TrEMBL record:
The lineage of its organism: Bacteria, Pseudomonadati, Bacteroidota, Cytophagia, Cytophagales. The gene is ctrA. InterPro entries: Bact_response_regulator (IPR050595), CheY-like_superfamily (IPR011006), Sig_transdc_resp-reg_receiver (IPR001789). This is Cell cycle response regulator CtrA. GO terms for biological process: phosphorelay signal transduction system. Keywords: Phosphoprotein. Gene3D superfamilies: 3.40.50.2300. Residues 4-121 form the Response regulatory domain.
């Protein structure tokens, strides 16, 4: 059975690229545009990993990661990969604080992304 990946990214270009590359690796992809949609999707589904941009409308990736970690079920432990183009605003301690499992900088190195997704879904 294919692993399920949730991609939260408000850039359609990055979202579509990540989607195609990961589908090629036999992952089932669900894509949303903001953190609130991530939380909504998690109500009805279980994902093996979440890839989330920091800068998104309505609810950003950092707030969303915090909300996921506060859940009182097994979904609270879903691996989270944070992606961002302006990580200068954040340090490793910020990613640790919100419970992110990995951080990747934009422009995305898709080989690295695929490697991280495989690593976190083993």
């Amino acid at each position: 059975m294919n692993k399920k990946v949730l991609i939260a990214e408000d850039s359609s270009v990055i979202q579509n690229l990540a989607k195609k590359i990961l589908q090629f690796q036999n992952f089932d992809i669900t894509a949303v545009k903001n953190g609130k949609q991530v939380l909504d999707k998690m109500e009805g589904e279980r994902f093996d990993v979440i890839i989330m941009d920091i800068n998104m409308p309505i609810m950003d990736g950092m707030q969303c990661a915090e909300q996921i970690r506060k859940r009182d079920d097994e979904k609270a432990n879903t691996p989270i990969i944070i992606i961002s183009g302006n990580a200068r605003n954040y340090g490793q301690e910020d990613f640790d604080r919100v419970g992110a499992n990995a951080y990747l900088q934009k422009p995305l190195n898709f080989d690295e992304l695929v490697e991280k997704v495989h690593e976190l879904t083993r």
